[in-house]
Amino acid sequence: MLVNLILKHRLNLQDFKLKLVLSILSTMQDNAFLKCIDSQCGLEYSISSARYECERGHLLDVKYKKIPSRALKELFYSRRNPQGSIFNESGVWRFRELLNFSQIDTGSLEECSKNLVSLDGAEGRQSKPYHMSKVADFVGLKNENLLLQPEGYNPSGSFKDNGMATAVTHAKLVKAKKIVCASTGNTSAAAGMYAANENIKCDVYIPSGQIAPGKLSQAYQFGAQLIQVDGNFDDAFSKSLQDAKKFGGYTVNSVNPFRIEGQKTIPYRALENLNWETPDWIVYPGGALGNTSSCGKCLNELFEWGWIKKIPRIAVVNADGANTLYELYNGKFEETELRWNKGKPDTELIQRYYAHLDEKGIRPNTKATAIQIGRPSNILKGLRSLEFTNGVVIQVSDSEMLDGMSIVGLNGFDCEMASGSVPAGIKKLIHEEVIKKDDVIIGILTGRQKDAMLPVDYHNNPKNRFARPPKK
Ligand SMILES: *Cc1c(COP(=O)(O)O)cnc(C)c1O
């Protein structure tokens, strides 16, 4: 393996030894480092590396060596009275000891200000789980057993701000001049907002004609450079990666391991609300599977650190028109059920599935554009999360998602169609008796409504379950 590496990178032995020694030395001092997720590969990199994959193309994890003290729970709670610090106000940085990849003195306001990127403490600030009685009725649960956490009240209107705060923090650490992303809408809104605040450039690759206008307008408004790509999100994403490599750009899609770190705070906030008692289920919509990945990593770390005793199960809800994970996980494509398989997933099965999509001309197709993704870039990390949590994957139709979105609205909360998959998916899982009636469930409502015509159209059609058409 060593020889291969040397040949592949045309290093002479001297260089290679020097690099190896330097990298071992730097990882020895550091608490945080990057590690390839592939167990047979396991390459490690310094935290100041700007790569999102190892040299063999596997995704990376941010790893920490030290086990954080459980006494931090009290510190986090006390920060809910922010005492003049935006880093306590921030629902992301309030937990900074658990994502301290910058390896700063987290108690020093000066060091935080110098290193941590925040929209004046607004990311995650308003996010916590709520009971919504009408949703509970709709899905068939007791009100006290269902908690829904709206992430749409983040400054740019979706959960993406949680991970963008940390990704842009890392972009600053590696002195990136420009951040780059492909987007179904909300990633570009978040990236644009942070880039404007940090005064760095931002390129956004979008599939032409497939972004909700309310999201597109945000990218323009924040001064991002749009690049329209013929094709769908998956095409825009591969173009953005190519260009980032060619012209130099820091990718802030959820393949970026630092995005995943910030998104761990979504379950932190939910769990803190339950006094760190774990629910039975955590339910997410599934798009690129960044959330699924971060939730699994979060739970895995908390479990290993002894912060939680029981592991909640993750349920991922796909749109039936963009259901790659659903099909592969449940053995709908070939009979084999795709699994992480203790780090040896059948990646050829995934490749055969993608070839089948191409061959048949199957394009992801749902009105819930935020999850209209055929090639979830975090599929392997997602599978790992599902294995660790004994998770399930389900699919729902567009009309079920619209009902889900609408019933959330009737509780006085705002969410978008992709988030409507969460109530819809919970309802289905209860119906199928996968979720039991006395289970405790946390559902993440990922974003707020930015597609103004969806509710208008929904309510103007009296056939829709919760429609209230206008009077003439
Ligand atoms: C990005 C997004 C998703 C998909 O999340 P993944 O982490 O990519 O699975 C779901 N809902 C909304 C509102 C989003 O913006």
Question: What keyword list fits this structure?
Answer:
five-stranded parallel sheet, Rossmann fold, 41% helix, disordered N terminus, globular, alpha/beta, four-stranded parallel sheet, binds pyridoxal-5'-phosphate, 472 residues, 12% strand, 19 helices
Describe this structure in words.
This protein is an alpha/beta fold. The protein folds into 4 domains: 1-30 and 67-101 and 109-116, no CATH class; 31-63, no CATH class; 133-155 and 259-460, 3-Layer(aba) Sandwich (Rossmann fold), CATH 3.40.50.1100; 160-255, Rossmann fold (3-Layer(aba) Sandwich). The chain has 19 helices and 12 strands. The protein has helices at residues 2-8, 13-29, 72-78, 86-89, 109-115, 133-139, 160-173, 186-198, 213-221, 233-247, 257-263, 265-273, 290-304, 324-329, 347-360, 379-389, 398-410, 421-431, 453-460, and strands at residues 32-36, 44-46, 60-64, 146-150, 178-182, 201-207, 225-229, 250-251, 281-285, 313-319, 392-396, 441-445. The strands form 3 sheets. Strands 4-12-9-10-11 form a 5-stranded parallel sheet, with helices on both faces. Helix 8 packs parallel to helix 9 (213-221) and helix 13 (290-304) crosses helix 16 (379-389). The termini are far apart. The relative contact order is 0.12. The chain binds pyridoxal-5'-phosphate (PLP).
